[in-house]
Amino acid sequence: MQLNKIRLKQFRNFESASFSFSPALTVIIGENAKGKTNILEAICFLLVGSGFREHTEDELIAMEENQLEAEGIFTIDSYTLELHIILREKEDAIEKIFVVNRAKKKLFQYQKETTRAVLFSPEQIQIITESPDRRREYFDEIISLYKPEHKKRLFNYGNALRKRNKLLEQHTNIQTLREELTFWNRYLEEQAAVITRNRREYVEFLNEHSRIDNKKFRVEYVSNELTAKRLEEVFDRERIYRKTFIGPQKDDFRIFLKGEKFEKDLHCFGSRSEQRLGVFWLKMNEIYHHEAQKKKPILLLDDIFSELDLKNKKLIFHLIENYQTVLTTTQEELLDISGVEKEIIRL
Fold this sequence. Notes:
The protein has 347 residues and is an alpha/beta fold.
């Protein structure tokens, strides 16, 4: 699937704009705050139905407006695919309309028609350096792309967890509390089992593709399982502190770089360069994961070259040769990338 053109109306800082893309490499060049990353986000928005920076969807809509439109023209062999998303504010809600070749679709139907995007950005080093929340968010996002049920289970689990915590906060009688927790304990256990299984399967996939360049990585899934037995074990503690102590909301993913004699936990002991390579390994596996689902992704590189050493730059250049790529930069010298057909967008 090849991206040819996008048209934007009231998307972020673009009142009305259109951009064309090379089947190989497109370089978006301009100073900071000109909207380079917004173009990448618009591509992602068209492919998966959401951006990658917003906390709430209305942030994608231009200031003082209440609706945005994004259109994309793609080709699959000789077949033309037109994608169109309308996002509008309606009273206290957000309405999102998905259209494929002028036919309205539900999100899951829309996503079946599209390919995927793999984003590389300097900020993604936070997957390794920051708290377990950041790693859980990253892994769950990847898993949910091909398992919509995973996202639903996370939503169900989060709602049930809040209700269970409310019972713990307000209880006055131990026996009554036990009775009221019975339903929520069983429900949480059901949701948690699916979440844990899906996370474990993706970790197994990563560990089956452990090498990048001459380095070998491994992910350890630190699962905080929620079972009836464990809930009983922590009941007195939860009753005293009035909150839930176990469950997949406590999971972590530890990423290790294997050496000849020992493994290095990149979160605790990795150098900046090793951490970046670890993120690159995760992103490469995103690509492999998409291709295993018969989706050849489009690569989105957001101003990453100033953050990479020469070895990692070579890995990126090798990728560019094999995938349609859109990259942003402030560095004019990147326009001299030789041997690659490219389109230039100046902002």
